[in-house]
Specification:
Two copies of one chain form a homodimer.
Chain A lengths: L4 H13 L8 H17 L1 H17 L4 H7 L3 H16 L7 E6 L5 E8 L2 E6 L3 H13 L3 E5 L5 H15 L9 E3 L5 H7 L8 E5 L2 H10 L12 E5 L5 H13 L8 E7 L6 H10 L3 E4 L1 H6 L4 E2 L2 H4 L7 E7 L2 H11 L4 E5 L3 H10 L4 E6 L17 E2 L7 E2 L6 E12 L3
Parallel strand pairs in A: 3-4, 3-6, 4-5, 7-8, 7-12, 8-11, 9-10, 9-11, 12-13
Antiparallel strand pairs in A: 1-2, 2-16, 14-15
């Protein structure tokens, strides 16, 4: 593996520069973040220029249109980015919260206080808005940030980071708390994942391959985000209208995201109600992969293979399976799900309670679309990703979720007997 | 690397068997744990017999006396283990707690509820009491447990696990939720660290080498425990009597543990008070490694090398350094500390506040011995280790700290617009 001086130097420098970030007063920190928002808007023309270089490269290299769309910036998108920064600046400060406090019989006062993680590295793909989102969220949470986006977005990211660093000059936040890794080689990512001395946390954000690579190879602790094979289970007592609305929303409102529904389980006793929603899905352009009983209702459906139960389509496709019972649904979901978001539609409170307890996922929904698993929809005001692991934080990752804590212990000379 | 069927089979089986552990009623779970306590006492003779085989092996192999003492079981130690189990059974159930709850403007009720981690693997050294502690804490927290102790304790551990599994027969806890890895080869540990499919968490407990190996090589998320290069900083305004009491306690009350003091920093303006406590340390058998100014006070002290500042002696040795200011003390600790427990002795509240905020450690103590960083002393009622990492949980790891959470979302047909 090649080693890059750039990677070590930047990680080390961010570690040092960001040490005192947690001590900055909230109002000063927010003022610094607001100056990032202004700078993004003011320098929109030069950001668009840098972006056009990346877009040209993307077209030349034959990047697919969906990815091109993610890479593309517009005046409106830059405005939205700046607006996002202002929202983050306005959120409650996640550092220095007293999370718990108690006094021991010997008089020791123990206080659990939130503190920054330290240095967070974000490894992501072509969306340049992640560059700004991640940097601002990390800084607000008192952490330094190392950014490593896709090579295809390098010119845009370089410009965005230059603009943000420029905006921080003269504020309480040292611009050196933020660095972009410019080295395009994949070895730069491998190297980052070994820098336990300088990095406290790595958050991968992107496709399944990127996430798997980081989770499997990082020595730095990881917050695993994003892969969502989310199910909607329609129980025998489900209200047909409600079920239809939830399924259509969960599948088609934004099919490319991780909290979209990828698999539909239908209780066999509910099958008589199923034809209508299945046809609605087909009319909405959704390709159905299903078992035999579903295909009897909608002959347009393809036969599902075992692969389909585990697929995250991220598009207008869905697997549909008939199940004989709540137990079968729970078992199927715990086997094929990715611990992201799972939904039951039912009028039966007892079935709902069992589903919510027994299904192993970050979010378990009763009569609500899977699409709600999101930092904004949860009311966190921001989101750096959605965790599908059990350690540290599960589900939407807002500001609180990217902090740590320490115990402050106050005594008057206590010793242990 | 050799692969062992035993390791995969046991990990897979514990994953399956422990799935519904989180659903057991607390009173039934506690009854099952109490039957473990009884069985340990009833079967003490056969446990002691197994232990004597390990002890014989230890003597033959020339194991040092301190390690032999850790390995040795006695009737009293078995009683203490059983008592520990009873205490854990009596603790508040950590699963199913509503940690937070709120309603969104659209009517969604979001509830954050504690849930089991899943399967926890414990990798540890020669102390057989860890076998029982870890198993009972994991089960109480609703998780399956894979135990991998030292080869030198294998007969004892086999017996302890057999006794515990026997006690669980006929209770609500499936004895298959607990397995001991018997393969002695180190490759068995390497294999465990790759089983992301079956293990949710690995906790290493033991010496620095063991912990480093797990932290650096595990793909399964790790809770790093234990290495403690803990400092006491005596500020210029420290009360001499209090400082003396705290230093003596932190260094000598139990020098072999991770929260013992390993390094003493003395403000230069306090040096006139220092001779007394330094001589007390020497009289208590403590070897001092120090800078020149300290050696002028106690000529018995050895010169400290740069290595000494980073050493965890785990015995009757201490490094002592003069510092010119609070800033120098904080900087030194943040450079050489292991983020475990750091103490300031001072009468100056402002210095104390700065120290508590700026020192990066799981516990920061003002006028209290470092020895208090402990699950029992914190009032958690139990402890599976002390975390020195920032992710997930920091400091003493009680029952709550080895659980995860999920969001239960209740709606009445909400979809996302």
């Amino acid at each position: 593996m090649s080693e890059y001086r750039e990677v070590i130097d930047k990680a080390k420098s961010v570690k040092e520069r960001s040490r005192s970030l947690g001590l900055i007063k909230p109002e000063d920190k927010n003022a610094a973040l607001l100056s990032i928002a202004c700078a993004l808007e003011e320098q929109a023309p030069s950001i668009l220029e840098a972006n056009s270089i990346d877009m040209e490269g993307a077209k030349k290299s034959g990047m697919n249109l969906q990815l091109q769309d993610r890479l593309r910036l517009t005046e409106d998108r830059i405005k939205a980015m700046a607006e996002g920064v202002r929202q983050v600046a306005g959120l409650e400060d996640p550092v220095g919260r007293i999370m718990d406090e108690w006094t021991r019989p010997n008089g020791l006062l123990i206080r659990k206080v939130s503190v920054p993680m330290g240095v967070i590295a974000m490894i992501y793909e072509a969306r340049p808005n992640v560059t700004v989102d991640a940097a601002v969220l990390a800084l607000k949470a008192g952490s330094g940030i190392i950014l490593r986006g896709s090579g295809s977005a390098l010119e845009t990211n370089k410009k965005l980071v230059r603009v943000m660093k420029g905006a921080l000059k003269g504020t309480v936040i040292d611009p050196g708390c933020m660095e972009l890794i410019e080295e395009k080689s994949h070895d730069a990512v491998n190297q980052l994942m070994g820098l336990t001395e300088y990095l406290d946390l790595i958050i991968p954000r992107g496709g399944a391959d990127l996430i798997r690579n980081v989770v499997q190879n990082s020595r730095v602790p990881v917050l695993e985000t994003g892969v969502g094979n989310c199910h909607v289970f329609v129980d025998e007592t489900a209200d047909p209208e409600m079920a239809g609305k939830i399924i259509l929303n969960a599948k088609t409102q934004r099919p490319s995201v991780c909290n979209a529904c990828e698999s539909l389980l239908i209780h066999e006793d509910w099958l008589p109600n199923a034809k209508d929603i299945l046809e609605k899905l087909i009319r909405a352009g959704v390709k159905i992969h299903s078992d035999q009983r579903i295909r009897e209702l909608v002959p347009e459906a393809d036969p599902a293979t075992d692969d389909d139960w585990g697929r995250e389509y991220l598009g207008l496709e869905i697997s549909v399976k008939t199940v004989g019972s709540l137990d079968e649904a729970i078992e199927h979901i715990n086997r094929y799900g990715t611990h992201h978001t799972e939904c039951i539609v039912t009028e039966d409170a007892e079935s709902a309670e069992r589903f919510l307890k027994e299904v192993d996922a970050a979010a378990v929904n009763w009569n609500a679309s899977t699409r709600f698993t999101d930092g904004f929809e949860f009311g966190f005001g921001a989101e750096i990703g959605i965790s599908t692991q059990k350690m540290h934080a599960r589900g939407p990752l807002g500001l609180k979720e990217i902090t740590s804590y320490k115990y402050m212990v106050k005594g008057n000379g206590q010793v242990r007997g």
